[in-house]
Amino acid sequence: MATGSTQPQEDQPSAEPILRLNTSTHTAPIRRIATDRENRYAVTASNDKTARVWLLPDGRLATLLRVPIGDGNMGNLNAVAMTPDGATVALGGWTSVSGTRENIYLFDRASGTLLRRLSGLPNVVIHLAYSADGSVLAATLGSNGIRVYNTRGAYEQLPSDAAYGADSYWADFDPQGRLVTTSFDGFVRLYAAGRYDVPLAKVKGRGGGRPYSAVFSPDSERVAVGYNDSTAVDVLSGRDLAFLNAADTSGVSAVSLHVTGWSADGRNLFAGGVGNQVGIRRWENGGSGPYIDIEAANDTVMALLPLKDGGILFAAQDPAFGIIYPQGQAKLLEGPGQLVFRNSLGSLKVSKDGQTVEEGTNFPQHILRFALTERRLDIDPPADGSLIAPVTEDRDLTVTDWEGGYHPSVSGRAIELDRDEPSRSLALLPGNDGFILGAEWSIRRFGHEGQLIWRTPAPGITWGVNVTPDGRLVVSAHGDGTIRWRRGRDGGELLALFIHPDGKRWIAWTPQGYFDASVGADELIGWHVNHGFDQAPDFFPVSRFRDRFYRPDVIARVVDTLDVDAAVSLADTAAGRITTRAAPITQLLPPVVQIHEPAEMARVTETKLKVTYSGRAAADNPITRVEAQIDGRRTDASERVLTATGDTRVGILTIDLPRRDATVSVIAYNRHGASEEASVQVIWAGRGSEPKPKLYILAIGVARYKDAELNLRFPAKDADDFVKTVRDHAPGLYDGVTVCPPPRDGRWTRDAVLDGLDWIHEQPTSKDVAMIFISGHSVVTPDQIYRFLPYNFDPGRIERTTVRSIEFQDFLSKVGGKVLVFLETGYSRDLFRGARAPLQTNLDRFANELAAAENGAVVFASSSGNRLSWENPVWDNGAFAKALVEGLGGKADKAKEGVVRVSALEEYVYERVNDLTGGRQKPMVAKPRMIEDFPIVAVKQ
Fold this sequence. Notes:
single chain, Lipocalin, Methylamine Dehydrogenase, Chain H, Immunoglobulin-like, 6-stranded mixed beta sheet, 4 domains, globular, 6-stranded antiparallel beta sheet, 38% strand, disordered N terminus, mainly beta
């Protein structure tokens, strides 16, 4: 539990769960970046209300830090600093409910635990900086100067200069503890070490009226200053801020070069800014020599930090961050976690009924079309003339100055927006009934005369708006990568859609949390739960609530009903269920678990590892059991419980480790299900190595059915070809291959399928690999249950003659070792020839369930959404099996590694099936986070 002063009760953050995006990278501008002295870590702070710790130099995500959040700006992070030893991360920004009592949060970098809160700051924190020895923390504020803290002990505040005339955007320490700051009051200020209340020197900026950044050179002799209102970059004396020289900024196509930075040896000066098409400029000789321009980011550069090797770390508003190497090449480590709709005015189109939307994206440029009822995502589809673009001009209604303007008007009358809020998009309502205006932080409906009808907050810049021809629906595209549906009459939100930048995964949801998701996508949103100001919030992906809230049938009806409750009622009636009020999320929460020892990446020399964990859950819903995993798969562990109260459990798990590097995870359960996993990396430093695993294969292909009208051509052949290909390419990776014998009569009845699952469940040990290939018909019945159709399927007795998803899970979750599942089901509906199975065919929920952390399988699904699986005599296989066999046969090894890895097979199968079927079939992969990108087969040389 963190410590800090208590906020008044009315100023506490809301305890109501908040539905948020949950991507692996940021979805809003990165404002600042920090690193430790040894450049082992980078930490980014973003307006998506998260901070993220990354491992350098590869940029792999290590820890996600969450602060208390609320409506509007509350939780937006502007500032971040890291102690030189990398142990502590300081975060600041818009952190209070009222906007008048701001906070600085101090986190343990390794565990993500909130250690302390520094409260009572009078304004928003804009920048944070630790001194070189970590003994002092400086914060710059909006219009209230600076606050400086002694970090030795209780972080008591030191005398600090509050006499600033405007916002302060930067602070930087030199190795001796002197501090330099900037302010939009026009001044650059220099403070002596330990005297931060009265400036040693105070000078007006020479190159502009709004100095933004001021950074000491490594030898403290110079200070580089960048400006918010010009492209000037000045170099001042580090002794007294006297002007020394100005860098050559000729030819810079930018509004400003406001961010400056030095290389570690002080030889090179860097600057980046707003609208700079060339990215970042680098000057030799400390700013007085020749320059080069480096393409680095697609948006405003926000920070430049030196790296020990002579490179520089940069962050940008894309959001993105990366490294510029000493030779001048830039490498992006992480790009946006969302689609970028910026600069796509007029491209948001909608069908007459509002069920289909189309929008253009930047970086890269594509057209995306999504059909709700078909659960179908298309990239760069053929033009569809039935889709309607927004109307922005009409002779009877004229709206002007709305494209980025701060003062739009209607027929010459000014429209009031919030201060400093530009408008971004426009759609006129049908029948001259007014218009919809999308702005930086809001969406607004105005009447014909410009009178405000309603206003609703936006989750990001509103880059596009549109209206259905009947005015029932308003559709909007936002800076966080979401597309949202709202009622035209009152602006009430009905539905949101997020399409991942990979162009494959998508999730749609209602404000109440009902959702539909493609394979691998049901962790892209989740519930953020605040616990006051002095404890880090919890986060629960919606996948934790799949049983109650995965409702494609509801999502398909929301747009038609304009009411979520009505959509639920209709969907329940169609499924034969009685509608009941959903329990609040707070009553359905699974546990939260944390690993304490080992605290982070550990070197081990013994195969026995003791893991100390703690878990917590609601007192009336305690933890019932805890399990250990290695590389995402359940493993045996002995447990010694140290403490078990109503809401807390602390214990030690003793685990047998493999003789190799591994990821060790702990998962806790209560009656609502499994927690998110807590994980730690272990590096094997002992003697010996793991023997090769054994491979076990279960291949089920149902081509012939008791009801001959359901017969297919290739599932049995697909299964045989899969087995042969894997067998041929197993030598080198596996110590033998064992295949489950098929039924003697070749008929995979329900009992035979269950016997096969029982076999694969019994055979592998925790050191082995299991592959399960399943091909044939499947359906999803109105109760949303996936069912595989065996040979003896009877359409009149669906419940008794199919194999349910829960039965597959029951066996496959208990299989030892790594598990790969290949699902080639949901065949083209025309092959039913009008017979008795006109049911849904999507594999999404089933694949996501198998890949959940508690089940831990890697799942290759032949199709996603309501797309169907296709077979063709020309291919001599189903499309999925043909691509799979080709890929496993070596074609997926494009990197020429001599093995086919999970990621390489995923890429090959997706592209090949898409090509074979002309885009009609989209295979997908779902995999647990802790699963490594391991080799599946070897490639014959």
